[in-house]
From TrEMBL:
Pfam families: Sel1 (PF08238), TPR_27 (PF23310), zf-MYND (PF01753). The keyword Ribonucleoprotein does not apply. This is MYND-type domain-containing protein. Residues 280-322 form the MYND-type domain. SUPFAM superfamilies: F-box domain, HCP-like, HIT/MYND zinc finger-like. PANTHER family: MYND DOMAIN-CONTAINING (PTHR46758), MYND-TYPE DOMAIN-CONTAINING PROTEIN (PTHR46758:SF9). It comes from Lupinus angustifolius. Keywords: Metal-binding, Zinc, Zinc-finger. The lineage of its organism: Eukaryota, Viridiplantae, Streptophyta, Embryophyta, Tracheophyta.
Length: 347
């Protein structure tokens, strides 16, 4: 029997030789593609560490401006001056995901409210939907200021812009605002229509992401769906009713960063003073003053930054934990309770 001919082993340096032969603009073009599709920060940053030339071209304005959201999916425990500087470089290159991410981190984690707001506004002005929605949540809560700084009409306007861009969280929030007459004239039927639309879009997104990722819907053991586990933030709350646990495609990486920051990282000490994180595990927004967030009016144990977060957490987890035995008399900032929201059958 003949042995297959042994292929000569390629030297690692061949790769560099190949790249060395390419002109700078072509390498920049390739790196732009890589930065826009990288699935993690390390996937992109490791390229920068390969050699001096890739480091120089990898930090080219065009490459940084194209970096996708996954490139900014940092762990809070890895936060450093280097990461901060990298984000600033991406902001300077005009990257909207970087503006939004650094804006959120500065506003909530570093408590540099003015700078955080201006970065988020920069992204929002260029129609970055998560930034528009985050500014809406800040307006609804008067975050970073006092109760008097709440601007419900501005919050609704920002939500409307983000929902027109197809951002599901904003659509859901707008639906609740119309449904409850919060910051806008009450319109029950329109509110319900938007909530159904938000649910339908979420479902469509989940189904699309599942079919494109090939693994079929994983039907979990019904008994296991009764016990929520830490880390299940990415499970689709809609499908949890039908014991299907499917990843939600729209959880913002910066939300997970903030939760980690305040639960395990440097923010754990700072949060203190009775301030709490939003009860929806995929959110991560902290209160910026005491009693800023709305509280579940049945048990009074959990707090939410928005109606959308409350509705999602109810479906995902809280309906299994909420008990009316310990009713808290003291109201929220705005005296709004959660029971109407979670029991109307639409959300
Ligand atoms: Zn929230
Ligand atoms: Zn409750």
């Amino acid at each position: 029997m003949r042995r297959p001919l042994k292929q000569p082993q390629k030297r690692i340096t061949d790769k560099h030789d190949f790249l060395d032969g390419l002109p700078d603009d072509l390498v920049v073009f390739i790196l732009s593609k890589v930065s826009s599709t990288a699935s993690s920060p390390s996937e992109f940053i490791n390229i920068l560490l390969t050699c001096k030339r890739l480091n120089r071209l990898g930090l080219h304005r065009m490459v940084l401006s194209k970096a996708g959201p996954k490139v900014f999916d940092f762990k809070a425990k890895n936060w450093s001056e280097h990461v901060h500087r990298f984000l600033k470089q991406c902001v300077n290159a005009g990257n909207l995901n970087a503006c939004y991410t650094l804006g959120m981190i500065r506003f909530y984690c570093l408590k540099n409210r003015a700078s955080g707001l201006s970065l988020m506004a920069k992204a929002a002005m260029k129609s970055h939907a998560p930034a528009l929605y985050s500014l809406a949540v800040i307006q609804f809560n008067g975050s970073g200021g006092t109760k008097q700084d709440k601007d419900l009409r501005a919050g609704v306007a920002l939500c409307a812009r983000a929902s027109l861009l197809g951002y599901i969280d904003a659509l859901r929030e707008l639906g609740h605002c119309l449904h409850d007459g919060y910051g806008v004239k009450k319109n029950l039927s329109e509110g319900r229509r938007l909530l159904v639309q938000a649910n339908a879009r979420e479902l469509a997104l989940v189904i699309r992401s599942v079919t494109s990722a090939s693994p079929s819907l994983s039907q979990s053991d019904p008994s296991s769906s009764l016990t929520w586990r830490a880390g299940d933030y990415s499970v689709c709350p809609l499908l949890s009713d039908y014991v299907y646990n499917v990843a939600v495609p729209e959880v913002q990486p910066v939300g997970l960063f903030m939760r980690e920051w305040f639960e395990m990282g440097p923010g754990r000490v700072e949060l203190g003073n009775g301030l709490r994180l939003c009860g929806h595990i995929g959110c991560g927004r902290p209160e910026t003053r005491a009693h800023e967030f709305r509280r579940c009016s049945v048990c009074g144990k959990v707090n939410y930054c928005s109606r959308g977060c409350q509705a999602l957490d109810w479906k995902l987890r809280h309906k299994m934990e909420c008990s009316p035995e310990e009713v808290v008399v003291q109201g929220n900032d705005d005296g709004y309770g959660g029971v109407e929201l979670v029991n109307d059958g639409v959300i």
